[in-house]
Amino acid sequence: MALAANKILILGASQSGKTTLLKRIQYLIDGEPTEEERAVWADTMRTYLANETMTVLDFMKKNGTFLQYPDINKPHIKTLRNQPRSEIRDVEAAISSLWKDKNFLRGFYWSYRTQPANIKQLAGRIQHLADRGQHRYTPTTQDILQVFVKTTGIYETTMHYNSRPFQICDVGGNKSQRKKWIHAFPNTSVVIFTADATSYSKVLCEDENELRVAEELTLFESIANHRQFTNTRLVLILTHIDKLDNIFVRNPVTDCFPDFTSSSLPGFPGYKEDYLTDLENRFSSRLPDERDRGTFQILRADLIHDGLETVEDILKTLLEDTIP
Ligand SMILES: Nc1nc2c(ncn2[C@@H]2O[C@H](COP(=O)(O)OP(=O)(O)O)[C@@H](O)[C@H]2O)c(=O)[nH]1
Ligand SMILES: [Mg+2]
After folding, report:
1. For the whole prediction, is pTM greater than 0.85?
2. Last residue in a domain, options 146, 165, 183
3. Same domain for 214 and 307?
């Protein structure tokens, strides 16, 4: 079975970037989404934003905070609640109006710790078009990459790079999904573990009392120590690198890792470098002593904005040694 020797398995906690990495590899190989696919993504993105906007409103309600303009926004909230029966134009107007409300934005920042990345950027895209009266919105590839769609089960596909076939496997990262992972383990040639570099500032959706980074480190340790992977190449990809500078300002690293030190201040390049090195050491320290360090590698990625060449370099790294 030639294919079985070329299997890339992507593991990692929920929202760490597994599916985004798969999408980027898919677009690199098969080309970017077609017009028809973009039209479907436009619907997915509107529904996603409508739901995330409602989540912020629910958070505000639970915490007893009010919108700056409750009367203006009342019909907009009704529109979002009636999704998907509401008119597209009304949904876009509702998103546009709510994301302009100062108190809504405060609620958004307060609820930040539980949210997926990029919601504000996507809301900004809809807002921009709605304010110009342009509907029939067509998402760009970057917009599509920024939408979070929860993966369930195991998704396995075969692709070709330079005419050579390889299998790539994406899994649902939620705690409840992980017992299914074992079915995807056999014949893996390289395990990718994606970890969100900003997760020190976030909590799990499944359990708001648990820091995402703690969960990612534990999960990484269990994968790195799994008996089926003792001789399997392991590549850790730290994602969401683009988000760090903004996050450092609002969320000091020492709140999560009191022993972290840097000679630079948050917002300066030295701080980011020190933080990433520190994080990499925290992951590496979870490797079993007996693992040959030559079979372990760490990459850093901004899966939304990195250029095609970078994605191709990542793919080549993953396929090294796995192509006969
Ligand atoms: N800004 C930014 N967003 C990312 C990056 N990687 C993933 N995301 C976003 O993070 C969210 C979760 O990513 P996804 O790939 O679905 O995570 P999965 O649950 O591990 O499959 C999505 O909204 C992605 O757009 C990254 O490097 N930078
Ligand atoms: Mg996924």
Report:
1. yes
2. 146
3. yes
Tell me which of 128, 146, 164 is where a domain ends.
Answer: 146
Instruction: Write the single-letter amino acid at 301.
Output: A
Residue 170 sits in the same domain as residue 302: yes
Predicted confidence pLDDT, tens digits, the chain (324 residues)? 343 458 999 999 999 999 999 999 999 999 999 999 999 999 999 999 999 999 999 999 999 999 999 999 999 999 999 988 999 889 999 999 999 999 999 999 988 888 899 999 999 998 888 888 776 788 999 999 999 999 999 999 999 999 999 999 999 988 898 999 999 999 999 999 999 999 999 988 777 888 999 999 999 999 999 999 988 999 999 999 999 999 998 899 999 999 999 999 988 889 999 999 999 999 999 999 988 888 999 999 999 999 999 999 999 999 886 655
Q: Is residue 123 part of a domain?
A: yes
Q: Is 111 in the pocket of ligand 1 (CB under 6 A)?
A: no
Ligand 1 pocket member 117 (CB < 6 A): yes
**Among the atoms of ligand 1, which is closest to the Cα of residue 173?**
19
Sign of CA dihedral 106, 109, 115, 121: positive
In a domain, 180, yes or no: yes
CATH number of the domain where residue 120 is located: 1.10.400.10
SS3 296: strand
For ligand 1, is residue 233 a contact (CB within 6 Å)? no
Is the residue at 122 inside a domain? Answer: yes
Distance CA(196)–CA(202), nearest Å, equals 10
Cα–chain center distance at 111: 17
Locate the DSSP E strands across 197-246: 233-239
26 and 63 in a single domain? The answer is no
From 15, 177, 192, 241, the mutation candidate for ligand 1 (largest count of ligand atoms within 8 A of CB) is: 15
Angle between helices 70-81 and 88-98 (to 10 degrees): 140
Residue 16 and residue 43 share a domain: no
Which ligand is located closest to the Cα atom of residue 44? Answer: 1
Number of domains forming the structure of the chain: 2
324 within a domain of the structure (yes/no): no
Question: Best of 25, 141, 148, 305 to mutate for ligand 1, by most ligand atoms within 8 A of CB?
Answer: 148
**What's the token pair of residue 141?**
């590839």
Asked if residue 301 has its Cβ within 6 Å of ligand 1, the reply is: yes
